[in-house]
Amino acid sequence: MIRYTKTFLILFLGLPVMLLGKSLVLTTEKTTYELGGYLETLREEGLTITEARQAAIDGRFASVPTGTPILPFQDYWLRVDLDNQYTYTEGHIEWMLQFSRTWSQVEVYFEDIDGTLKARKSGLFTPVSDRIFKLALRENVVKFNLAEKQQSTLYIRLRSDRVDVPPTLSVQLSPAEEFLKQLKRKRQQNSFFVGFVWMMTLLSILFFFQSWSKVYVFYSMYLIGVSTYASYVEGDLPDYLINLLFPEHPQYIFFVKLIVYLAMVGYLLFLRSFLNLKEMLPRWDKIFNFTIWMSLPLLLLDAFLMMQYNFSSIIPDRVTLSYGIYFAIFNLLFLRSLYLTKDPRTYFIIAGICAMSAGIILMVIARLQSPEFSVAHLELGIIIEILAFTLGLAYRQRLTERERFKAHYELEKSQFIQQQKQAEAQRLREVDELKNRLYTNITHEFRTPLTVIMGMANEIDDERVKKLINRNSENLLRLINQILDLSKLESGKMNLHLVQGDIIAYLQYLTESFLSAAEAKQIRLSFYPEVPTLMMDFDEEKVQLIVYNLLSNAIKFTPNGGKIIFHARIQEIKEGQQLQLKVQDSGPGIPPADLPFIFDRFYQVDNPMVANQGGTGIGLALTKQLIELMGGEIAVSSEEGQGSLFTFFLPITNNEMKLEEDWKP
Ligand code: ADP
Fold first, then answer.
1. In CATH, what number is assigned to the domain containing residue 509?
2. How many CA atoms lie within 13 A of 619 on its CB side?
3. Domain shared by 154 and 218, yes or no
4. How many Å lie between the centroid of ligand 1 and the Cα of residue 485?
5. How confident is the model at residue 612, as a pLDDT?
6. Is residue 328 included in any domain, yes or no?
7. Low-confidence ranges of the chain (pLDDT < 50)
8. Residue 276, by phi and psi: left (phi above 0), alpha (psi -120 to 50) or beta?
């Protein structure tokens, strides 16, 4: 609508003016003039200014009807008559012409105050050194002089060297003072936003040094991307960078646009690290990864197209735009999954993304309503987003600190418990030692009176009483000796007295001494050696104690009419040979639950069939200790109701003195 009105105005009002060749009168009433209606144009290649002036005299300049396409790679000459009627100030000698940004070469010829012809240059492809006015380098601004009351004709040569950016013949003229005032105002508007983002960037970098957390690196990346892009779009940054980095090729400033990829990638990395996405949403984590890596080839393609098409921004912008659209859709879909997690951390992110999206939508609406749209909505959206993200970071920081505190507390607690346990164990050990000592001492004291009793018993005439006393005393004495042996073994005071002899004969002799006890219960007790003789080192007394314990247990627990087999064989092992001995009975066996404890001191099976057999739970503990003292091992296997099998080994050595054997049953 607006466009048609404009065309109408130009056609019906502007045209007659142009035909009259009326000059543009500059007065104090206006500060900005659009030259459009006063321009005459000539499209001809390679003219010099002198030739162009001649062409004007020849009447070859004409007005261009609106809507005529302006083509790239062609010279356009413009001329306009100016009449400066500014009277009240001296300041308006300097004037500014602002051309559309799309022209890559701009030359303005004017008659200076002293009457000489001057040329001024601008345009995207024009080196900074060729320009007089070195501000707003991307804006195609030319400064020229026009004194009070002066009438002058401007000749302008324009050329666009970029394929896809159609230039327009719109030229604005304003007094330099006014132009600078407006430029300043425009940049100030943007500076609040840019300043805010830079400040947040700084804050994030500071936070990084305080916490050494990666999440701040990514957040800073994002913020640097946003702030650089914002300062690139509007602000002093392009002027500064062009002057600093490539004054010969101002068009290279387009490369700074690529920073938008840093913003997007920084944003993705930040979200991934902030949410710990790998654990929260592993599938999305993969998509994030893909999106992050995808930006690299796109960035390269973007840069390549930029150079390929001579910095025609529209073609490479398609790549940026596609990534941007993908990025937006990606964000919206991600928002949904994020919402479903119900994790409180996500609320900050959701709020941030919503604020930014709302900003984008409002900006697009504003753009649709007028081409002169403002980015204020987007900026506000981004500010809210950054605030939400920063709050999220603070919240996350608090969570981490709380967790760290908790972990620290747990550690201290467990250390304390550990110490307590150690102290308790130490105390138990001490009590145990004391108990042992007391036990041993008392037991020791039992022995003397017992010997006296046994001696005195022999003087009793009543044989039955004498036998009773003797048998009980012997049992008591054996028990006492066992206890003393055990405590000796445990304190490491028991020594081996090895001699070399035929152990098979000795075992035979020991077994025979149990025959009468076995017979009393009609138990068949048999000794089966696989070899007739075996010369080896052994401690007679200890072997006797071992065999005594195992056989007497077997006899004790095997019911009447049962069977006990004592078996001996030589076993080949890696280190040489060992003697393997087995005591197998047909008794009640040992419950599986008790098996692991059978060799513990004072351990007795809590079994009604067995409990009434008496005993103290010392025998097997002593047996095991004795076998181990001799360098052997003992193991038990049993099935309840099927009997028990004790297997033990003794190493076979032949280092000791030979013994005269006189074992007889
Ligand atoms: P105790 O003096 O009680 O016999 P031991 O240390 O010799 O002490 O044996 C510990 C426990 O092992 C016994 O109380 C008994 O329950 C179990 N036990 C030992 N030998 C046998 C066996 N041959 N058959 C069944 N149970 C046995």
1. 3.30.565.10
2. 18
3. no
4. 18
5. 53
6. yes
7. 1-20, 611, 665
8. left
